[in-house]
Structure prediction request, 107 residues.
Amino acid sequence: MAEHCPGCGLEFEREPGYWVGAIIINTTVTFATFIGMFLLLIGVTWPDVPWGIVMGVTVAANGIIPVVFYPLSKTVWMALELSWHPLETEEITAASQRATLAEYQAG
Prediction:
């Protein structure tokens, strides 16, 4: 992942441990999807639930969803965090300087 936005120069990781929130969002979405899928499969196949298929589908989903959703969880986390903790003057100045430098280097 890039350290800064190529357009505006915003630094993505604003402080050490910044992406822990994205991991929490990713874990929550994965867990909610697991529960929803588990209950849906049981509900659709009740009373003869094929437990092997239910286990296979939910385990596969728990392996795929976190990997596929992680980039989006970073975007969601950054949007939420920016709404709670707006950019400070120093961050805006640094982003502006990086964007200006990138434009200069691009020619």
Summary: The chain has three helices and no strands. Residues 20-85 form one domain.
